[in-house]
Amino acid sequence: xxxxxxxxxxxxxxxxxxxxxxxxxxxxxxxxxxxxxxxxxxxxxxxxxxxxxxxxxxxxxxxxxxxxxxxxxxxxxxxxxxxxxxxxxxxxxxxxxxxxxxxxxxxxxxxxxxxxxxxxxxxxxxxxxxxxxxxxxxxxxxxxxxxxxxxxxxxxxxxxxxxxxxxxxxxxxxxxxxxxxxxxxxxxxxxxxxxxxxxxxxxxxxxxxxxxxxxxxxxxxxxxxxxxxxxxxxxxxxxxxxxxxxxxxxxxxxxxxxxxxxxxxxxxxxxxxxxxxxxxxxxxxxxxxxxxxxxxxxxxxxxxxxxxxxxxxxxxxxxxx
Length: 321
What we know:
Elements: E1 5-8, E2 12-17, E3 29-34, H1 36-46, E4 52-58, H2 61-72, E5 80-83, E6 90-95, E7 101-106, H3 122-126, E8 130-134, H4 143-156, E9 160-164, H5 175-186, E10 191-194, H6 196-201, H7 209-218, E11 224-228, E12 234-238, E13 247-251, H8 264-277, H9 282-296, H10 309-320
Parallel strand pairs: 1-4, 1-8, 2-6, 4-5, 8-9, 9-10, 10-11
Antiparallel strand pairs: 2-3, 6-7, 11-12, 12-13
Domain Carbohydrate kinase PfkB: 3-309
Protein name: PfkB domain protein
InterPro entries: Carboh/pur_kinase_PfkB_CS, PfkB_Carbo_kinase, PfkB_dom, Ribokinase-like
């Protein structure tokens, strides 16, 4: 069965704390499925566009739990791999009083670091309209080579290619390696989703979010750049060679009762991809993605909080009254 979208990257376990504060002061955690590309894949499914998802989990209880969770959300298992020789990645989340979070990873040689080049064949890419990947699997090989390989071949197959750097400094040898490898990836990318801080880490940020987006386009690679700003909303800039009209738009966020910001950026990506594939213009795509992201912050955990179209529409209607 062919699908219109392929998402590539890690699936892992997020351990969500029972209260805010430093990791060393938290006594209890709740297990939640996570991983930025996994969240995007499930987010697309929740928005009624279930994609193919290429990922790799360990042959352990956590991996089996994640396989079941992905299946429960309607994702096909065609490219969900189980690694008999590696464990599933774990990430412990810490929150401050505003809901912002940091991650501590247990990811040395785990299954998602062992994606192998060539697993996604040319026929699959020929059937795909859109391919999305995240930056975590670029942090170490062979997953680094596998991710770069599929991005390059997706671009050659005329897929629309989108990418989220998802900078996690503790996973990279140094800042220079991050900038170099992600720069290699961006050469094959049509759309980039990033924060100002991530663009600055790539050496192409600075100034306002709109100026940062323009610099990212001028650096070569993406024709459209989204810069997310948390509760303040997002901006997007599209160049003349984008398949939608060239524009620079700035849309505010939505006021909601925030419980947990984990996965909000991934929800934004799923919302933006959905809106653009629906044929919406850039401004409408940013507004819809902001609504999806805001709704995702109103519950704990990344994947569990991803909203339906109806939930996002409810927020949009409330704000328009």
